[in-house]
Amino acid sequence: MKIKQIKQELSYEILVIPAVVLFTIFSVLPLLGGLFLSFTDWDGLSFNFKFVGIENYINAFTVSDVFLISFEHTLFIAAVTTILFTILAIPLAVILDSKIPFTKFFRAAFFFPSVPSALVVGYMWSFMLSSSSYGFVNTILGNFGISPINWTGDPTLAFLSIIVVQLWGWTGWHAVIYIANLQSIPTEYYEAAKIDGANIIQSFKYVTLPLLTPAMSMSILFSITGAMKIYDIVYALTGGGPGTSTYVVVQAILKEGINLGKYGMANAASIVLFLVILVITLIQQKVMSRREEGMT
Amino acid sequence: MSITKMHYKDKKNVLGYILTFVVLLAVLVICMPFYYIVVNTFKTMQDATFHPISLPGRITLDNYINALKIMNFFRSFSNNIIITFFTVLFSVFICSAAAYPIARRKTKLNSFLKFYFVSGLMVPLQAIIIPLYLVMKSMHFVNSFHGIILLYIGTGCAFNVFLYQGFVKTIPYDIEESALIDGCSPIRIYWSIVLPLMQPITATVIVYQAMITWNDFLSALLFLQSSKLQTMVLAVNSNIGSFATDWSNLICMMVLTILPVFIFFIFMQKYIIKGLTSGAVKG
């Protein structure tokens, strides 16, 4: 009986094998391998290497400032875009969930910029922001007598460009998450609030906003983790420049690791990136679940 | 049902009109870049330089003809199709097959496997890209379609298995049970009973895996270096440098790259949004 049972369970497990094999080779092995290599002085060529402890981690953040500044830039983009997504997407969702005409078309129009490849979106915007006579933004400004601005040539403006393009691309996406949540709020709550004498702002503040916690939780999580992984759009828009002033983490990892062969340091930085994303995810989920518990 | 819905009627439509107008303006801003690149693709170089914003004076298709040639459109497009098609096809079968026993059979092995795949959700591709590069090189998977297809399936596994196994729980067990009593093998049950019932979540998996694969730049840049294997995104990228001053062909390439995605979005919108929001409601 026992053996028969095991046999039956094993006949189910055949189905798992392909996924386990591919997942192990392309996700688990690289993660563990990267972790292992981050503690060695492996040069990418020979099989001779020794353990160097946390030397790579120290070197990555002290020998040159490339990783340090790229983490700073990435965290900055993550913080600013997350705040702005939340501020912009909630009102947008409220409007797109109301009874104004063409909401279906409007939602699609706001959502679409998140669909094409981020790289092509980045190049499209570098065309829009170009200082040549083609540049849309500078042409418009020129009509008001403002001389052309080199949007990606100045560190502050380059960051501004990246953030604006991110907002253009993803605010509608975040709004869709909020819309789904808004639709789950029962009308009775608003009626009750109205009977109690609440005005628009009060019922938004005391009914809508607290009940939007699940969507907010998801939106913030995706915004932060997405920004930590940012690469394509920066690569296309500023190339990390001017100089290294908009360098981001993934870019630094690729350059130091693959182009310059500094595997130890690049792996150390990758593990730090992984941990940052992991910690943010865990903290955010804990905070949000506590808030959700507090509400009910 | 939101707050604006409640109060919009009270204000005799005025608020509604104002909001519609504001949203319309915002939509125009959102659509502007698309209008701008599309409109300039039909202009001659001279027309585009002096009147970049207006509609084209005389429509020319020369830019498109050049762009199709330069980006080797038919090759890069069919490369995209091949890679995306096989990635999606195998992802659906492999991940749904894995999710079925994991969600259905309560054994220690399966609860470990569930944890194993779920922890993969926390591993971003970007953080393992260097060792992944080494894996791909050592397996001689660089510059091959099968290599990158396996990579896409492997890195997408965690999410797809997660979606599927969440769905399996909602399928009633009765039908499978009677099939099992009739002596059906688990593989047979999966294939002829469970897989067809998984259709709704399969739609989500197809749509998302297709978009991720189609738009991928990072892995494609590293693992498809040969120009014969170039995808459309890579074709745009590799031509960007040679047109520092003349954008006319380049914006055609952008339009040609965005157009298939746009058509896909028009038809698949429902599934894209459903996939996103079903996750949101669960929180």
What characteristics describe this protein?
heterodimer; A: about 300 residues; mainly alpha; 14 helices; B: about 280 residues; MetI-like fold; about 0% strand; globular
Detailed description of the structure:
The complex is a heterodimer of chains A (296) and B (283). Chain A is mainly alpha-helical. In chain A, 73% of the residues lie in helices and 0% in strands. The longest helix of chain A has 33 residues. The model of chain A has no long low-confidence stretch (mean pLDDT 89). The model of chain B has no long low-confidence stretch (mean pLDDT 87). Chain B is globular. Chain B is mainly alpha-helical and 283 residues long. At the A-B interface, helix 1, helix 2, helix 4, helix 5 and helix 6 of A face helix 1, helix 2, helix 3, helix 5 and helix 6 of B.
Largest sheet of chain B: none
* Total domain modules of chain B: 2
CATH class label of the largest domain in chain B:
Mainly Alpha
- Which structural class do the helices and strands of chain A define? mainly alpha
Helix content percent band of chain B: over 70%
The share of residues in extended strands of chain B comes to: under 5%
Report the total helices of chain B: 14
CATH-level-4 superfamily name of the largest domain in chain B: MetI-like
| Strand residues, percent of chain A | under 5%
Q: What gross morphology of chain B would you assign?
A: globular
Name given to the CATH architecture of the largest domain in chain B: Orthogonal Bundle
CATH topology of the largest domain in chain B: MetI-like fold
Q: Helix amount of chain A, in percent?
A: over 70%
